[in-house]
Structures are given as structure tokens and as C-alpha cells.
Amino acid sequence: MCKIDFMLNFKKIFIFLILFFVFFYNTSNAEVIKKVEIKGNERVSAETIIVFGDIEIGKNYESPDVNLLIKKLYETTFFSNISVVLENNKLSIVVIENPFINSIIFNGEKAKKYKEKIRELLTLREKSSFIENNIKKDINTIKAFYSSLGFYFVKIDAEIEKLKQNTVNIAYTIDKGKKAKITKIYFLGDKKIREKKLRDVITSQESRFWKFIARSVYLSKERIELDKRLLKNYYKNKGYYEVNVKSTNVEYSEGEGFVLTYNINAGKRYKFSKIFADISETLDQSAFFSLEDEFNKLVGNYYSQKKLKSILDKIDKLNEQKELQFINHNILETLDGDGVEVKINIFEGEKVIIERINIVGNTVTNDSVIRSALVVDEGDPFSTLLVNKSINEIKARNIFGRVEHEVSAGSSDDLRVLKISVEEKATGEIMAGAGIGTDGTSFQFSVRENNWLGRGVKLESALNLSQDKVSGNIMVNNPNYKYTGNAVFADLDVSSTDRSSSSGFKSSRTGFGLGTRFEQYENMYIAPNINVAFEDIEVDETASTAIKNMKGNFFNADLGYAITLDKRNQSFKPTEGHKTTFRQSLPIIQDSSSILNGLDISAYHDFSEDVIGSLKLHARSINGVDDDVRLTNRLYIPRSRLRGFNTYKVGPKDGDDYIGGNYTTAVSAEAQLPNMLPESYKTDISLFLDTANIWAVDYSDTIDETNKIRSSVGVSANIYTTIGPLSFTIAQDLTKSTNDETETFNFRLGTSF
User: Fold this and answer.
1) What's the burial of 212, exposed, middle or buried (CB within 10 Å: 0-12/13-18/19+)?
2) Mean pLDDT of 331-346
3) Could you tell me how far CA 105 lies from the centroid of its own chain?
4) What is the 3-state secondary structure (H, E, C) of 273-330?
5) Would you say 474 and 447 are in contact if contact means Cβ atoms under 8 Å apart?
6) 3-state SS, one letter per residue, for 654-710
7) Where on the phi/psi map is residue 140: left (φ > 0), alpha (ψ -120 to 50), or beta?
8) Residue 567's closest CA among 559, 558, 576?
9) Model confidence over 71-82: pLDDT tens digits?
10) What is the pLDDT of residues 541-594, one digit of tens each?
11) CB neighbours (10 Å) of residue 395?
12) Could you give the count of Cα atoms lying within 13 Å of 592 in the half-sphere of its Cβ?
């Protein structure tokens, strides 16, 4: 027992001695600063050192405090060496200053915008301290920047020039080398979808000698990441819920270039098995009853993010109609066998207001362009849904390379600040194209700017040359005129047409148009326009007397409009839905004027992965108001609506000249067979049945109207070749008029570059 007490007392004494020693040691090394002495500083003042070191006269400093002081001074990057001694109440600091960067220059880079961008990325900057260890880091940063532009062979040297007064100049010598071009693109793995279609999805393209303008043939990390997102979204919209773009491999072959490979595992294809809403008890359940019908329409269809988004958009519209604020929703998706079960949670969110919206990063684009795309505004209830929708609207303008947002606390608990960060990107595009076929040779060239003067305005000019026509136009389009959400556009076009070989006339036309387009109701668009044109028509000497009477100069002003109902699942190569457009043109100033009416209907349905069907109707009528219909305004059947015929040589004929008609109709049925041939053929096959009619000649009762149904059946193919897409048609006419000229075979080889 005594032994135990002794041990306990010994432990207490031992701990006391340790604590006493530690206290005595610390107090013996602690001193109150009464004086500060600084040596070695030339550029940095003593006052600045005291401020950055957080040094206080009269404060008791211990060893940890001195170490913290040294750390703070090193963090300023002003000094390469710092020593501190605390003795006799005097703090002595001796520093060696880093050199001061006088200037940074870039040899080998002429583009001002690239120089400015590099300066923003560098760690070392002008009028700051020079730290030699950061040179290597900045060289790697510059290399990474040029790699993102497609320069993978860039070489960079840095030269440091020492000047007086401990200053330096930094000179980077940049040898960019040649841009890295993509020579081959491969899609490997269990991809399920044909390679030709996947090439249409991604933005990267294989380099070809005629694509000397295209930027998409150059290797770019950002573009590859975009391609991966596009591929993933495409597969998910096709029902491949578990798709995995597993890897992207880039290999370089000496003398050939870069080979880009996408490794895809599509997985199983899923359908919607069940969709239901879980509505919070605090909300009015009846406000969302109409959603049940929308859910039932999707059940049994293949899973699609796009279709699911349309449901969420309808929920947002219901919230607006019912004036429900602070409503949020989220989605819980669960795999259930071969289906996807979707649970949509609808609930009341946090009741906060947007106090302020800050926009940063836009050096070219006006703030107003970005704010006009926002669905929310300062003072509105904060909604995560509407904020995300606003960000998507900004991205959809396609004038920024990156759009991000951040939400932070406002001046009170019920306020939020929304910060939107954007990164400008090049918004100009140049396109050139050429084609050759049985219908002649054509060339196209266009220049487009999607953010003219930083106002979000689109400016486009184009030149087109074909066998019988030369035309050029300039168009300005403001997609959000005065923040109304309506597009307003104006265009000037000039053309010269020579149809002396088929219709006996030549014409030159100069026109100006002004119009707008807006969504009146969901999926219903209205596009009114006014067109003013001056036209000069010349007629061949061999033409009939009636045609010769139509020559002369004409001036017209017309009011036109189009009403479109578009319920297709996608605008490019749709597979489901329908689109209907009615259009009309009415004369304002009459000078051999006419009234034009038109109706276009198209419907699509994918019967399976192997068969996509479409049915299209085209109808036009034109009637003179103050005179017969002008020669250049008479109607012809579009070439794509009656394959197997030379449509400029179909219909009424005055002597040797085909003069068109007052009425045209066409109905086409087509079955696309994307998987008919092995993928290695890179060919899409379609079977078609075309029927059409063209009739009526208002200026003569003696000319045969040829009011007869024309029809043809055939096969068309689109082949992806190394020099561009090749399309050809083989058709057999079933019925025709005696005047009609048939065309059993037609091909077209064209590309853009």
C-alpha cells in the first residue's frame, strides 16, 4: 500500500517538474518588442514589412510568434531570404529581396489576344517579384495553353535579363510548330450505333486537304471533352441509360498525325417503366393533376433525357400559371429490370430572394446580352430550377466557351447573391463548300459572326454559285430584340439567274427583307416579314410571244408570314413527331404582283432501330392580282420532292420552254434503313415513293396544263467517302406526262471545309 502511494506521489512531482520546466523555458525565451530594426530592404519599405509581418510594438513575442512572422513575410513573395533575431527587446530582421519584374515579352507570338490570355494565366507577372522556381511552372502553363489550341509540338525557351536596381526582364521565345491535325477517328467497343451516325454527333473531324479552313480538324482537349459529353447525351436520349464513354485515346504516328479513338460501352437499352410525382403535402395537389397524362405518354417509350426534360419544363410552366413561388423539384431514377422508374419530387424550397446578380469575365459581350437571357432577375424569388435554366439559356447563345455560376449569402439571411462567370470564345466562322453532280457544279462560301460588336447579334454573308444561278446575301439577326425574346432579322440579297436553256429567260434581282420570328404558343411559331425587290427580266428571241410580253423591270413590296407547329423530337434528322407550316405572301405595292399560298406537312416515326419512316406533303398555289403571274414567280416542283425527274423540265411547256405552273402538290413516303448494309460500307439506304403534280397556265388557254399525277419509286444512298459525302438516287418513273423529262440516275458529291 505504501509502495502504491509513493508511486502516485512520484508521478505528481514528475509532472509538476515538467510543467515548471516548460513554463520557465518559454518565459525565458519570450520578450516584449520595444524596437524593430530592418536591414537589406531597398524596394520594400520598413513600414510595409511591419504591416505584412503583423508586427506590434509592445507585444510579447515567443518562438512560435517569430516563426509565424517569418512565414507571413515569405508569403508576400517579396523576399528570397529572411532571418529574424529577437534579443534585448529588439527585433532584428534581415531580408534579401527577390528581383522585380520590369517586363515580360513573348517572341514568336503575333496575336494580341493570345498574348493577353497567356499573361492572365502566368504566375509571374510584370511589376511583381521574380521567383526563379516559377519559370518552369509558367513554361508548362504556356505549353498547356497552346495544346488547347491544337499546338502539341510547341517549344518554349525563357531568357532572364538582369537589369540595374535588382530588376529583370523575362523573354519567352515561342516556337508553336504545326498544329496537330486529326488524321483518323475511330469508335471502338460495344457501341450499338453505326460509326457514321456517331461522326455526325461529335464536333471533331478528320483532316482532309480541302478542309483548310475548318478548325474542327485540329486536336483540342476542350473539343474532345465536348465530344464525350455529346456522345453520352446522344446515347442516353436513345435509351442507353448506362452508357459509358470509357476512354478517349490519342496516339501520334510519325508522318501521319494524330489518331483519335473513342471507346464506348453502350450497355442495355431501357424504357420508361414508371413515372410518378411525389408532391409535398404543403402544396396544392390539384395544381399538378394534368401531369398524369404526360407521364402515361412516356411510359413504354425508350428512356430519353430530352423527353424527361420536356416533363420538367411543363412543371415549371404549371408553377408560372398557378403563380407558385419557391417551388423546386428533383428526380430520382431507379433501374427496374429492363426499365427506368422515375420519381419526381415536387416541394417548396427555401424562401429567399435574389438580392444581386453579378456577371464577370465578359470582356467583349455586353452585360445586357447575358442578362437578357436570364429567366430570373434581381428581386425575384430564388429558384434553383430557374437559375439552372438561365445558365442553360446563356450556354444556348453559343458565344461563350464556359459558363458557371455561384450562389452566396446576401446582406441578410433571406437574400442571395448570384455570380455568373463566363469565358469568351471566338464567335466567328468561315465555311466553304463545293459539289458536283448530274445536276451541275456548285460552290458556296459564307462568313458568320455570332456576337457582332458584343451585342449577341448574328451577322452572316454568303455567296452561292450553281449551274444556272449566282447569288449573294447579307443577313443581320438579333435573336432577342430589345429583350423581348423575339428574333428580328434583316437581309439584303442579289441574284442572277439564267434559265434560257430550259425556260427561255434570264433575270437579275435585288431584294431587301425585314422580319421577326417568335413562339406564340408552345411549339407554335409565327414569322411575319416584309420584302421589297426590284427585278429585271430578259427573254430569249426564240421564246413565244406570250413569254416575250413578260419581259421588263418590276418593283414589288410584299407582306409575308408563316405559322409553324413543330412537334418533332429534334430538328436535325428527326425520328418522331410532326411539323406543319402554312405560309402566305400578299402584295403591298402591285406591279405584276401575285398571292402565294403554301402548306408543308411532315411526319416521322421510328418503327424500329432498322426502319425510320417519314411522310411529307408539299403544296403551293400562286395567283396573279393585277396581271398574270410573272415568269420568274411561276412554280416548279422541288427536286427533292420528285426524284427520278428533272423538275425544271416537268409541267406546262410553251413551245420549247418549260414555264412552270400555278399549282404544285407533292406527297412523298420514305423508309430509311440505317442498318441495312454492314457498317464497314459507311452507307445509309432509303426506299422512297414520290408523287407530284404541276398544272395551270394563267396567261394562255391554248397551252396544255399537263394536269397529271407524276410518280416514281426508287432507292437513295448516302455514302461517307474520304473526299466528302456522296449521295445518289436511282429511280424509275411510274407515271408521267408527255412533256416531262425523266432522270433515272442522279448523284451529288459535296463537302464543306
Assistant:
1) exposed
2) 90
3) 34
4) EEEEEEECCCCCHHHHCCHHHHHHHHCCCECCHHHHHHHHHHHHHHHHHCCCCCEEEE
5) no
6) ECCEECCECEEEEEEEEEEECCCCCHHHCEEEEEEEEEEEEECCCCCCCCCCCCCCE
7) alpha
8) 576
9) 988 888 888 899
10) 877 777 777 788 999 899 999 999 999 887 877 888 999 999 999 999 878 789
11) 14
12) 21
- Please determine, for residue 616, whether its predicted confidence score (pLDDT) is greater than 50: yes
d(CA 28, CA 411) in angstroms, rounded, equals 48
For residue 2, the 8-state DSSP code is: H
Tell me the angle at which helices 221-237 and 133-148 cross, rounded to the nearest 10 degrees.
50
326: cell is: 419557391
**Which DSSP state fits 121?**
H
Q: How confident is the model at residue 42 (pLDDT cuts 50, 70, 90)?
A: confident
pLDDT of residue 20: 44
126: burial class by Cβ within 10 Å (0-12, 13-18, 19+)? middle
Contacts of 733 (CB under 8 A, 6+ apart): 644, 645, 710, 711, 712, 740, 742
Cell of 64: 512560435
Phi, psi of 608 (to 5 degrees): -165, -175
Gyration radius of the chain over CA positions: 36
The secondary structure element, H or E, covering residue 741 is: none
d(CA 728, CA 362): 47
**Residue 696 dihedral angles phi and psi, to the nearest 5°:** 85, 130
**690/671 Cα distance (integer angstroms):** 12
Q: Which amino acid is at 229?
A: R
Q: Give bridge partners of residue 730 from the DSSP assignment.
A: 715, 745
d(CA 678, CA 680): 5
Nearest to 724 by CA among 706, 751, 748, 699: 751
User: How far is it, in rounded angstroms, from Cα 389 to Cα 393?
Assistant: 6
CA distance 59 to 624: 100
Residue 211 pLDDT class (50, 70, 90 cuts) = low
